[in-house]
From TrEMBL, chains A, B:
Family indicated by similarity: Belongs to the acyl-CoA dehydrogenase family.
Signal peptide: none
Domain Acyl-CoA oxidase/dehydrogenase middle: 158-260
Cross-referenced Pfam families: Acyl-CoA_dh_1, Acyl-CoA_dh_C, Acyl-CoA_dh_M, Acyl-CoA_dh_N
Full protein name: Acyl-CoA dehydrogenase
Keywords annotated in UniProt: FAD, Flavoprotein, Oxidoreductase
Lineage of the organism: Bacteria, Pseudomonadati, Pseudomonadota, Alphaproteobacteria, Rhodobacterales
């Protein structure tokens, strides 16, 4: 079994839960087109990309001092991906794209990520860079750099971090010196640049944060630059690969230390306004954060599916009431604790995927002018980034455990999927950063409008949840408590900002659980009319499981938050 | 910084918490001897073993079809270990050992495991095999095989699992044919044999579970055999290495598929009575399970110490109230969420280590004839095996997270420590097996005496806990609830065994949290008189943290257990 994703669940999420059909109609497409794209993604993920995922992990990219060597399977697979039209799928028709809903594009992307996350990084980084140029690039920049990205000929990167500044972007040192021709020369060292160096495609479009000398200190002095690997005259720009990082997982994708300007300055072009680079980059980063969450979710789903297959095939032991040891052993899925582990993994991974695709649908709604979607995305983005990174990753951990000793070996894919997924709580803003974003910015912005929008949306589900009264009542009570506790916290935020933020990560996990509980309730309700009775029963059971086994963790978390516990805040560094 | 273990904490645990001095006195030793041994272990771990831990991971053992190749650092380090007398430390003086308390031996072992877990596997497997021979071997077997183990010249293995039977030992197929000279010939395939093949030392003593034809079915027909790699006449026994398993971590130790008897039968000698092999092996396995827990704990401690060092050195960002971005960045330990992560890791790893060393002290008390210690070990062994494997492992996960992107690279040791530790929830009985052992056997045996002994022991601490009233009252309430819920569950165990056992793993986590909460309270109380005020404040703060942030998770778990929730039990395989 390929065990990449479950096409039945993808179809359920897109059509029964998230209304893809309406989004297709609004953009001039139809379900047949969408189904064709999804089927192609599934087939290519299975036939072209999954087969070399293990090899890409075992034989990680190698830098010989001059160029980077990838395993030979990568480039042809990327070409086939481009030839099938995937790079163009999400871009507007005005930019040469197909103008498909973001929700559909994300679902298709899920197949590639789950099949081979290292491979998928290359086209998705190109797409992210393209999205930014589509929104902020000049017509000239679009013609020269966006068009070939849409055609799948150019790749892209996001160059934010530096060795001394990752989470603290205010402290980047890369500088951009203005030139008389309107271009800039960049000087500085960038770190953790995925896809930063390789020989595929015709060019790499680096999007680089740098400071123009004389600008304001901190984040207000950051500008964004387009720095191509290859200049228009065909010569190489002054961007040098200093080295590759050797990672725990995610090894198919090069991750680079890049030096800009060692030989006189890397040629760069300003994107957007000077000193407005961080706001521009955040446009891209919000989608990148949804992408990280979704990557975590689909890797978790893949791990869960592998574990499920194994649990149905591997025999071991007997029913606890069976005393006759000469009877045949039973598949381990028959053991209650294995079933509990599978249910936990299912509730985490499928819950995470529902959340991420829901967020993707909000991006479509926002593009269509839905103001509520903007508020929902504001409050949900840190959760969409973090919750799957923590809990879908646990599905990968459970997948190892279900396989027993075999799961700990490299003969089975589950340990690799775990290692691949372990990056997700770190990049695009660590979990701690997401907690600060949620509680320090999103909860307090617009007088609390984002959280109110979320609780109102949950309330709408509760009104139509008479089929699941136990879960409806539990979630209703929880929503009330979240509102109360948040108001209590917010009341002291101004005079005690450190106390307010001390347990931001706990708040993030708590609200994440509430949101995923809501997703499970929505799934259980939507599955009521599903023609596949087993599928519907599985969704109902996983919903029940999540409400009984997982959601109650929010109780102690809310107690902590209500008490504004200062145990960690007041611990001194010397005590450790 | 080596960051292997914290000698200050080891000394605190051994002397202030667990009364090593009395155990030393009872066995005719003194504190100076013990301190010398610990200092030697610390120095050798740091100077000899830690330096090649990363290399042993990167260059895992290789099998060329004839022999196994280890990196050249391993053998001299093992020789130095033997020359320092460590293999003899724990054995009785009658067997040529030093007769030191098990508690002291375990603490010394902790230094080696934390420094280089793959290396440490070799001597510890020899020690486990030696312990079994000391308890059950004939005088002849002891002279021929135990003595050279005590001298550090022979190594050992435990051969239980087979490809088709790991958790289900009843289903092993290896058979032992009796010979006229009283020996046996063994035929069968064994799997997951750590240290099963290498060229170090003079011999490897395999302890092998097999069935004598004609015996009872299931576990009642299992016997234990001593199968040496090299026979007395110097020829090789019929034990063939079929292949090495390639693992996620723990790579320094060979892990083997071994075939016995392909060329006519492997010569084996019965240890103990026929058909009583599992009981004999369990003697060894109980100590092995304590060893697994302790291995998990010390790897967690090492990860925590690395994270702590990094958090004190790495600067990033500023205080949340600091608006001037031109001020210098602060060490990340100044950020509340990093401090929360460190506190969580400390509470898990140091709590786990206290639990494991406490269990080691119970082994000493049991040897000295303390009946309560036997009851406490019965109930605690599954917890000692499982809780550190789950939660000290999370300390390794947190250590990666605190390091950010750097923690995800192989340039820092924290990702390797995570991979090494991930084995521990699997081997020597998976977590699911431990839950069944706890709830299905230990809780119900002797009319509930083991659990009563545990709750009584906790009660004794509570009586002397006036210095920590918040924690005392919380734990007292919890202990009462554990008793009630367990009685409620036990009342239905006979008529509904499947329902009773359905949430055994939840029970295991719940009782584990209670026990570790108790350990933290004991540590906080014992630290009151500690001369190092920072150390004492750290123990108190971590105790408070564990009670406020972690222990409340038991509330929802106890609710689930009280309800005897059947959500997972009643989910059908086709629903997944």
């Amino acid at each position: 079994m390929p065990n990449i994703l479950d096409p039945r669940d993808i179809s359920f999420l897109l059509y029964d839960l998230l209304g893809l059909e309406a989004l297709l109609e609004a953009t001039g497409h139809d379900r047949a087109t969408a189904d064709g794209i999804l089927a192609t993604a599934e087939r290519m993920a299975e036939e072209l990309f999954q087969p070399f995922a293990a090899k890409a992990d075992a034989e990680e990219p190698r830098f010989d001092g001059t160029r980077v060597h990838l395993i030979p399977e990568t480039e042809p697979a990327l070409k086939a991906y481009a030839e099938a039209g995937f790079p163009a799928a999400g871009f507007a028709e005005a930019d040469g794209g197909m103008g498909l809903p973001y929700l559909l594009c994300q679902a298709a992307a899920g197949w590639f990520t789950a099949a081979n996350v290292g491979f998928a990084a290359y086209p998705f980084l190109a797409q992210a860079a393209g999205n930014l140029l589509a929104a902020y690039g000049t017509e000239e920049q679009k013609a020269k750099y966006l068009a070939p990205i849409v055609e799948g000929r150019f790749f892209g990167t996001m160059c934010l971090s530096e060795p001394q500044a990752g989470s603290s972007l205010a402290d980047i040192r890369t500088r951009a010196e203005p030139q008389e021709d309107g271009s800039y020369r960049l000087f500085g060292d960038k770190m953790w640049i995925s896809g930063g160096a390789h020989e595929m495609g015709e060019n790499i479009v680096h999007l680089v944060l740098a400071k123009i000398p004389g600008g304001p200190a901190g984040t207000k002095g950051i500008s964004l630059f387009l720095v191509p690997k290859v200049l228009e005259d065909g010569t190489l720009n002054d961007v040098r690969l200093a080295g590759l990082n050797h990672k725990m997982g995610y090894r198919g994708a090069t991750n680079c230390a890049l030096n800009f300007g060692e030989e006189g300055g890397a040629v760069g072009y300003l994107v957007g306004e000077p000193h407005r680079g961080l706001a521009v980059m955040f446009h891209m980063m919000n989608e990148a954060r949804i992408g990280v969450g979704q990557g975590a979710a689909v890797l978790g789903v893949s791990g869960y599916l592998h574990a499920l297959d194994y649990a149905k095939e591997r025999t071991q032991g007997r029913d606890v009431t069976e005393r006759d040891v000469t009877t045949p052993m039973v598949p381990i899925i028959e053991h209650a604790d294995v079933r509990r582990q599978l249910m936990q993994a299912k509730s985490y991974a499928e819950g995470a995927l529902a959340l991420c695709l829901y967020a993707a649908s909000l991006v479509d709604r926002e593009k269509a002018g839905d103001a509520a979607a903007t508020q929902l995305l504001a409050i949900l983005t840190p959760i969409v980034k973090s919750w799957p990174s923590e809990f879908a990753l646990r599905a990968n951990d459970i997948a190892i455990q279900v396989h027993g000793g075999y799961g700990y070996t490299r003969d089975y894919p589950v340990e690799r999927l775990y290692r691949d997924n372990r990056l997700n709580p770190i990049h695009e803003g660590t979990k701690g950063i997401q907690g600060m974003d949620l509680l320090g910015r999103k909860v307090v912005q617009d007088g609390g409008a984002p959280l109110r929008a979320l609780l109102a949306e949950i309330g709408a589900t509760l009104k139509a949840a008479e089929a699941m009264p136990e879960e409806r009542d539990a979630l209703a009570a929880l929503v009330g408590r979240v509102g109360e506790v948040t108001m209590g916290m917010a009341a002291t935020a101004a005079q005690d900002p450190k106390g307010y933020l001390a347990n931001a990560t706990v708040y993030l996990d708590m609200l994440g659980h509430v949101v995923v509980g809501w997703m499970w309730l929505r799934m259980a309700l939507a599955a009521e009319s599903h023609p596949d009775a087993d599928f519907a029963a599985g969704k109902r059971a996983a919903c029940r499981y999540f409400f009984r086994y997982e959601l109650p963790a929010t109780g102690p978390w809310l107690d902590l938050l209500a008490a504004q516990d200062r145990t960690c805040l007041e611990a001194e560094a010397s005590w450790f």
